[in-house]
Design brief:
Length: 79
């Protein structure tokens, strides 16, 4: 399962994987990426709110930071 699908599964209400998702996000070594993942997939913030909270443009958050965060999660999940 791709990281994006895995995280969306939680957002749709599959709470059986909640602990695993929180542990995975917590293991991301970059504070900004961790913050982004928590705001998006745990707190359910939209991209505009995340960009505002992080003081970045929406395009930077979606196009760069989010992509990096998903790659980090992929590495963590694949070992």
């Amino acid at each position: 399962m791709k990281p994006k699908d895995y995280l969306r599964q939680y957002r749709r209400g599959d709470y059986a994987i909640r602990g695993e998702i929180i542990r995975t996000i917590s293991a991301v070594d970059d504070e900004n990426l961790r913050k982004l993942l928590i705001m998006r997939y745990i707190n359910n913030y939209n991209w505009q709110k995340i960009a505002f909270e992080m003081n970045f443009s929406r395009d930077h958050v979606v196009g760069y930071l989010h992509r990096r965060a998903l790659k980090k999660i992929q590495k963590l999940r694949n070992g």
